[in-house]
Amino acid sequence: MKDSIAVIGVGVIGGAIINSLLKSGYEGKVTAAEIQLEKVRELEKLGIAVTSDNRKAAKESDVVFLCVKPNVLKTVLKEIRKEVEGKLVVSTAAAVTVGFCKRVVPKARFVRIMPNVAILVQESFTAYCCDDDVTKEDREKIKEVLDVMGRSMEIEERYMDAVTAVSGSGPGYLSVIVEALTYAGLKVGLPRDLALISAAQAVLGTAKLVLETGQSAAQIRDSVTTPGGTTVEAIYEVEGSGIRQALMRAVEAATKKSEKIRKQWE
Ligand SMILES: NC(=O)c1ccc[n+]([C@@H]2O[C@H](COP(=O)([O-])OP(=O)(O)OC[C@H]3O[C@@H](n4cnc5c(N)ncnc54)[C@H](OP(=O)(O)O)[C@@H]3O)[C@@H](O)[C@H]2O)c1
């Protein structure tokens, strides 16, 4: 895709989207629109057009990414309503449905995405859903752009709260695990940097094994569990800790919270 893209709101997610586009050598024009222009001045040197005028950015672009906080989204949508009519608009706002966006700008085509913070290193899982007016060509375009930021998958909007809980918040729970594993390394005498890289790379490698070899997590666990060996000693302790139930409860709680916030928006 070579369409011109505007990114409105250049914080964590907007900045990561622009960074991913830059790293991928994206050929179309990219405009960064940010309320405080000085925050995006550096991007100009990298070939990004910058402005503090959201309407101008939307007017001059084919696809508009909205990367502002959910409480600002409606204001920005109203502001750029005329400029995005007939265009593809991608909302990153958690818990705000495509129906909500569509009610503010009925004539735009909306895609709602749920990335996670690993978008900063192009390893996000980005689930997305589309309103009924989004075309096949729009879907192809958006998948191409989102895949630059990691992996993406179109889903039904009814799964968004649960995906928010598993994947959007996932780096939060996994950070707890990486931290705990690092401390476990310290407990058995590893130097701090060695403990950290052992723990973090083990998590990264396991994820890659699941995603790239097609093995299930259970198959990977079995393959490293030698009878009478070290791993089975550790697994015995892990299974007794209730970690599976804790993660299920955590995700259930986050899903319920996401549903509650979404209903407040609706
Ligand atoms: N962070 C995550 O892990 C994550 C994950 C999934 C989805 N999301 C969603 O992504 C969206 C962005 O989140 P974020 O974490 O990137 O937020 P953020 O870091 O606060 O970025 C938002 C940016 O928008 C700017 N802004 C505020 N009002 C604006 C306006 N009227 N016009 C243009 N720019 C404006 C803000 O500037 P000021 O700072 O000066 O106000 C800030 O730079 C949210 O809707 C969130 O729900 C975030």
In words, what does this structure look like?
The chain is an alpha/beta fold and 266 residues long. 55% of the residues lie in helices and 14% in strands. An 8-stranded mixed β-sheet has the order 3-2-1-4-5-6-7-8, with helices on both faces. Helix 8 crosses helix 13 and helix 9 packs across helix 10. The longest helix has 23 residues.
Instruction: Write down the domain tally.
Output: 2
Task: Report strand order across the widest sheet.
Answer: 3-2-1-4-5-6-7-8
What share of the residues does DSSP label as strand, in percent?
A: 5-15%
Q: Name the ligand types.
A: NADP nicotinamide-adenine-dinucleotide phosphate
Provide the CATH top-level class of the largest domain. Alpha Beta
Number of strands: 8
- What's the N-to-C terminus distance? 33 Å
The helix-strand sequence is: EHEHEHEHHEHEEHEHHHHHH
Which homologous superfamily in CATH is the superfamily of the largest domain?
Answer: NAD(P)-binding Rossmann-like Domain
Counting H and I runs of at least 4 residues, what is the number of helices? 13
Helix content: 40-55%
Average pLDDT taken over every residue: 96
CATH-level-2 architecture of the largest domain: 3-Layer(aba) Sandwich
Keywords:
2 domains, binds NADP nicotinamide-adenine-dinucleotide phosphate, 8 strands, 13 helices, 266 residues, eight-stranded mixed beta sheet, ProC C-terminal domain-like fold, Rossmann fold, alpha/beta
